[in-house]
Amino acid sequence: xxxxxxxxxxxxxxxxxxxxxxxxxxxxxxxxxxxxxxxxxxxxxxxxxxxxxxxxxxxxxxxxxxxxxxxxxxxxxxxxxxxxxxxxxxxxxxxxxxxxxxxxxxxxxxxxxxxxxxxxxxxxxxxxxxxxxxxxxxxxxxxxxxxxxxxxxxxxxxxxxxxxxxxxxxxxxxxxxxxxxxxxxxxxxxxxxxxxxxxxxxxxxxxxxxxxxxxxxxxxxxxxxxxxxxxxxxxxxxxxxxxxxxxxxxxxxxxxxxxxxxxxxxxxxxxxxxxxxxxx
Amino acid sequence: xxxxxxxxxxxxxxxxxxxxxxxxxxxxxxxxxxxxxxxxxxxxxxxxxxxxxxxxxxxxxxxxxxxxxxxxxxxxxxxxxxxxxxxxxxxxxxxxxxxxxxxxxxxxxxxxxxxxxxxxxxxxxxxxxxxxxxxxxxxxxxxxxxxxxxxx
Lengths: 280, 152
Known about the structure:
Chain A has 280 residues and is of the alpha+beta class. Chain A has helices at 2-26, 30-107, and strands at 113-121, 129-132, 145-147, 152-159, 164-168, 175-180, 186-190, 197-203, 213-216, 228-236, 243-250, 259-263.
């Protein structure tokens, strides 16, 4: 009797459970769930938010310190990378400069070159000399012409074993014989204390115009012929003078001179003994 | 090295500062320093060797600067910085005049007025600007080398 009653209740509970499940699946229990779950969810949210607040209170200061340290490390890394970029850019510029000099040297196989870096400028503002880092140990000798891929720089004025002093064509004591490209005329360029170059000794009948290129003529034996020197900028012509003169823009930027080529197979000719002397 | 690599590449108009001149002037202005002449000869010989100026012009020029500094140091010893400024101006002008005359004598065409206005005056101004920091550094070096000779 008792056993049959228990089975009855078990069957009833199962039927009720199945019924409730079916009700729930069919959506009839939704209002009831909403009523029951709403306070539970609110309570869960309250507990969760309080827990998160306490957790952050305990852990966030440590995270800020960690983040600051990480930020500092990254900033250091960025600074290091920026320094590396600057160094690489510098190396790239030097490489481009050397490639340009190499191309120039390859284009003129008749000459032998020694590449040298400019390591100093003369301390006196009255003269225009630079110091290069190659000397007689590398085959450099007094009077050898110095050029860049752009044009004429000057010539060697003094040599030691490991360094040499170069007199620039802008030096007030420098005189270079030039020919005027496109014209059958020649002249002389001379430097000045301000670094400006002036073309002199050009005959009055030469149609000198701005834009005419100047190349070494080779006269005098101090420089090989046909090295680009500069361009005529403005012409000064006076009918009362024997010669006309002109301001010349050199092709080489002497303020940023970093590397040069020395032509080592050119020997300057000393024509002084051949010059006529005045007999008494 | 600093002079050749940096200072000579930073012109004002066409003048440049002369750190060697300033250092010698500051060194010779120190009362406790006894080796000013030796350093002057050394610096003058080195610059003569490096520079394209006629021989011994830098040596004579720097000896003149040291002479001015020594003379002023004995007369205006209470205001040594004033002596440094006067030495800088006078020394620069005398050194440049010597350079101009030596270059002209050696056949280099140097227009005198242009040289004074575009080279000497800007150089003097640059030297005057750098005189104070150079004097401070040299004074500290002199105190470090001669610590016991404090003037009362």
